[in-house]
Amino acid sequence: MMPPKQLLTIVIIIFCTLSFIKLLLLTSSSSSSAGSTSRSSPAWDAVGGGNGTARSALAVKELALLRSVVAARAPCRLLVFGLSPQLLALAKLNSGAGAGAATAFVTDSADDADAARHALLSGRGAGAGSGSADAVAIHRARYRDAAAEAWPLLRRARGSPACRRPTGTVRKSGCPLALTSLPREVLDARWDVVVVDGPSGAAPDEPGRMGTIYTAAALARAVAGGEAVDVAVHDVDRTVERWYAWEYLCQDNLVAAKGRLWHFRIAAGAGPTDAFCSIGPVQIL
């Protein structure tokens, strides 16, 4: 007969082995579940919801203002920097107004781009059965500058003639703030409404919105004639967004504000020919 001490040792070894196997199975199951969640976020299962799940999702009143801006111009040419279920729903609002609508999104997130394309194909993003998904384009972008670089970039831009009001296509701009690597379909087009809600810019080391705000302003100013261009900037409670909105979209163009969302209207041909704003640059201490 086996001694009690040896028997106890064997029991402990068996128990530990079974516990370890169970732990491995639980870990594997959790990883699979997490992977599935990241590929199909619940936020994208309810496109157009009023609350959103992103760190800086649009509040209800902000989304209402943004929708009213798009609805007033729809069907129109709509450019959106950023991509989320709330923003994707703007494509449905735009295309639902009739023929001639075109919506383009620019995002640095592969996951958001894939989720949005899936939503469009399934008919949840731009209206099922209307063919409107064909009028929606999603472009990937890589943003060079972190939010922490906002002030050094602005200081250099103020001293650079290339960063003054553009006189030609933005694609040929020599200003380091201009997102000249974006596709021609974005930079050479005329846009009626431009929305800036990306990239994240939520932390100093994350890509900032300096380039998207400057490019939005440059695209609006590049319009030689016709109707005004509406530009909306989200998260203006943050320093970078507020600085750059004042610098390039101008206080005298601000027509509405709700929460953290500012709505500017840039009149075609208005303002000085060699600067974005009629008044001097904002003093930043």
What does this structure look like?
Helices cover 38% and strands 13% of the residues. The chain is globular, with a radius of gyration of 24 Å. About 13% of the residues have low confidence. It is an alpha/beta fold and 285 residues long. It is built from eight helices and seven strands. The longest helix has 36 residues. A seven-stranded mixed β-sheet has the order 3-2-1-4-5-7-6, sandwiched between helices. Strand 4, helix 7 and strand 5 form a beta-alpha-beta unit. It has two domains: 39 residues; 222 residues, Vaccinia Virus protein VP39 (Rossmann fold, 3-Layer(aba) Sandwich). Keywords: Membrane, Transmembrane, Transmembrane helix. One of its GO terms (cellular component) is Golgi membrane. Its main location: Golgi. InterPro entries: IRX15/GXM/AGM. It is a single-pass membrane protein.
